[in-house]
From TrEMBL:
Residues 7-237 form the ABC transporter domain. Belongs to the ABC transporter superfamily. This is ABC-2 type transport system ATP-binding protein. It comes from Actinacidiphila glaucinigra.
């Protein structure tokens, strides 16, 4: 049934005003099945962020549809509690601890203060003792992890992460990969974007590759990444 499909996008298109004829996303269709860890891969400007922001109901597509567990997503519609999303630049109160910030956020979303799911999400995020420190003492990587933890509170069935490794150094990138793996281990569904194949090939089960707003490849990670063909000619590190 449609209600069992975490995410299905169909014919999605978006053009920004003033960007002439250029589509940021053009006739994009794909589906994420339950339990998949799907990497949305593409070079800078491919349209990953635009796609994810449409999925989160932050911007309105020009055409096409997005269904999350069977519900049509559109700006202004209530965000489903089954979905958690990470976008860059989440704001935290610097003088409060990481834990206090997350509790504040959790209560602001109208959920009960004590929730076993919250503790499990914090466990998965692996912030450890840092949770009890003021956010102003956090490195960029720690802030990013806290923002990921925030998206994971309540253990949503679908977790959407837009470039969670942006600005992180290699050890932090490896940690982020482990966080995604731990989250998905219980059969939860994750959609994660990146511009580096090396970042997603080990943590993802499936890939959707975008370039210039269009889907250029999709399938199980072994078929897409292991084919030996260059996905993006001239893009180092791919
Ligand atoms: P990145 O990895 O750099 O974030 P991306 O794959 O996420 O890239 P998008 O950010 O979705 O790609 O951008 C797709 C295209 O849309 C790019 O050409 C970009 O310049 C353009 N674009 C994105 N946001 C806007 C905006 N607010 N106004 C005009 N054009 C935009």
């Amino acid at each position: 049934a449609l209600a069992d499909v975490p995410l299905e996008i169909s014919g999605l298109s978006k053009r920004y005003h003033g960007a002439a004829d250029r589509y940021a996303v053009r006739e994009l269709s794909f589906r994420v099945e339950r339990g998949q860890v799907l990497g949305l891969l593409g070079p800078n400007g491919a349209g990953k962020t635009t796609t994810m922001r449409m999925m989160m109901g932050l911007i309105r597509p020009d055409a096409g549809s997005i269904r999350v567990f069977g519900h049509a997503i559109r700006p202004g519609a209530p965000v489903l509690s089954r979905v958690g999303a990470f976008v860059e630049g989440a704001g935290f109160l610097p003088h409060l601890t990481g834990r206090a910030n997350l509790e504040l956020y959790w209560r602001a979303t109208g959920r009960p203060a004590a929730d076993a799911h919250v503790e499990e999400a914090l466990e998965i995020a692996g912030l450890g003792e840092a949770l009890e420190r003021a956010v102003r003492t956090y490195s960029q990587g720690m802030r990013q992890r806290l923002a990921i933890a925030q998206a994971m509170l309540g253990l949503p069935d679908l977790l959407i992460l837009d470039e969670p490794t942006n600005g992180l150094d290699p050890p932090q990138i490896r940690e982020m990969r482990d966080v995604v793996r731990r989250y998905a281990a219980a059969g939860r569904t994750v959609l994660v974007s990146s511009h580096l194949l090396s970042e997603v090939e080990q943590s993802c089960t499936h890939l959707v590759v975008m370039d210039k707003g269009r889907l250029v490849a999709a399938g199980p990670v072994g078929e897409i990444a292991g084919g030996g063909q260059a996905l993006f000619v001239g893009a180092p590190g791919m």
